[in-house]
Recover the amino acids of this structure.
């Protein structure tokens, strides 16, 4: 009787094969799949923010957000999409000499900026949909507060938080690939992503929604006034920090952390552990 799930060695082997497929994607397909993935993560971020924006208990708010946010990765895994953070596992294919480092970098760069395009598109649509008017504009103010906090993270915290985040995100992707049925994949994704959200760790693609959404919300006088009233963030502080420079100051160290988390802290150790089993085709 066949196993109802893939073993860890099989997961590594299947991830290597998947890396070969990703490296062969045309630029157009890569862009479209990347935009879909960026949009999916943005949907998870937007909906979880709407659910928790007026909760004062931080633990309860993070737990509720952790229960909603995983829908983004579920959509990507089950329907299709290329997510930069998960694609860091392509290093397994490079380590096994199935793909070149150049092809991996080409794919990752294309996916990265495609994720950005998809996430920003949803941020714009969310703003014009009127969603941020929830609770007399409190949701808009909440997104401003969140974005403001992110752009003021120190580089060290951003890198370390990014490492922790992508260990969990890549683990969710690997665990989902272990399951052979949809229900198993959903459960495998849910718990690691829930843990990353509750931990408040930094995900570069999620931040591609959160920070631009906060920047757009800050242009609205109602939301900006609400942010000052509720959180004490002045218009001067927003102008000085919540801008393109602030976005770059967050996204670069977070991306570095995500790369380290997925590649150095997870992909390489897994390859070292399972290489012989993978190459011999044993379970």
């Amino acid at each position: 009787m066949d196993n109802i799930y893939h073993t860890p060695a099989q997961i590594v082997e299947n991830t290597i094969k998947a890396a070969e497929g990703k490296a062969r994607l045309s630029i157009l397909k890569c862009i479209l799949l990347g935009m879909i993935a960026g949009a999916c993560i943005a949907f998870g971020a937007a909906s979880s923010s709407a659910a928790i924006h007026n909760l004062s208990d931080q633990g309860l708010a993070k737990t509720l957000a952790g229960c909603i946010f995983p829908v983004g990765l579920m959509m990507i895994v089950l329907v299709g999409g290329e997510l930069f953070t998960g694609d860091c596992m392509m290093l397994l294919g490079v380590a096994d000499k199935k793909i070149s480092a150049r092809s991996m970098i080409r794919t990752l760069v294309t996916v990265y900026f495609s994720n950005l395009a998809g996430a920003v598109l949803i941020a714009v649509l969310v703003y014009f949909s009127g969603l941020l008017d929830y609770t007399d504009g409190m949701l808009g103010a909440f997104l401003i507060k969140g974005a403001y906090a992110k752009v003021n993270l120190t580089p060290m915290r951003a890198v370390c938080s990014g490492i922790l985040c992508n260990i969990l995100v890549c683990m969710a992707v690997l665990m989902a690939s272990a399951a052979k049925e949809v229900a198993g994949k959903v459960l495998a994704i849910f718990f690691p992503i829930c843990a990353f959200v509750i931990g408040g760790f930094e995900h570069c693609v999620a931040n591609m929604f959160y920070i631009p959404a906060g920047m757009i919300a800050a242009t609205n006088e109602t939301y900006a006034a609400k942010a000052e009233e509720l959180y004490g963030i002045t218009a001067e502080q927003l102008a000085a920090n919540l801008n393109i420079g602030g976005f770059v100051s967050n996204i670069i160290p977070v991306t570095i952390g995500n790369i380290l988390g997925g590649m150095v802290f997870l992909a390489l150790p897994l390859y070292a552990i399972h290489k012989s089993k993978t190459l011999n085709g044993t379970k």
Observations:
- The domain at 8-276 is CATH 1.20.1080.10 (Glycerol uptake facilitator protein).
- The chain has a mean pLDDT of 95.
- The first helix runs from residue 8 to 23.
